[in-house]
Amino acid sequence: MYIKCKFIHDTLKTNTKYLILKRFASRLRDGLDTYTNVKRNNERWNTMTTDINRLIRKKQRLYNKSKKSKKPSHKKAFKDIRSLIRNKLHKNYWDYLNNMLDPEKDNNSKKFWKYIKSRKQDTMGIGTLKNNGVLAETAEQKAEKLNNQFTSVFTTENTTNMPSKGNSPFKPMKDIKISEKGVEKALNRLNPSKATGPDKVPVRILKETAANYHL
């Protein structure tokens, strides 16, 4: 995959590394959207089959028929097929779990932890916050409100008259040197199965293009 990075001429005029990195991530995301066709795999539990869908439609017909006729035989047929559907769904569900937990069929535990995450009771996240009559609805606004709340409980101390501890017995830490080879090595050690970071740049892209895009 070849991604055209036209941001170089623009970033040469700036001296802020953060802006350079931000523009790099933006150009890389634009290149991914332009030159790649991402197919998302929204895997669902394989519990609903064609046979079960057919039984569900039949159950609805039997329910309407028993409600209209009031006959015990029709009501019994409706309850029997309802029980059959429940048993089939239960069996398919546990077959799915057994296949997922079988080490011979799935060596990657990502699917398992994805299932565990989906079983959490609270999936709504942080609700709308309100402070001084102002509602915080977006993620940025909620983060700002929570940050203000957490920082408000700390005491601001007067640091003008701090006692002197004398000279430190330890040697000062040397400056951290970041080289191109070091950055390339760190990019090559990334795990492509990990989630995308806040910059929204896929880990696989960073790893596969480490030789060309290390800063």
Strand tally: 2
- Largest sheet, described in full? 2 strands, antiparallel
Rounded to the nearest angstrom, the radius of gyration is 29 Å
Spatial sequence of strands, sheet with the most strands: 1-2
Task: Tell me, rounded to a whole number, the average pLDDT.
Answer: 76
Number of continuous helical runs: 9
Shape descriptor reads: elongated
H and E order:
HHHHHEEHHHH
Alpha-beta classification: mainly alpha
Proportion in helices: 40-55%
Low-confidence stretches: 1-14, 38-44
Instruction: Give the distance, in angstroms, between the N- and C-terminal Cα atoms.
Output: 19 Å
DSSP strand content: under 5%
What descriptors fit this protein?
215 residues; mainly alpha; two-stranded antiparallel ribbon; 9 helices; disordered N terminus
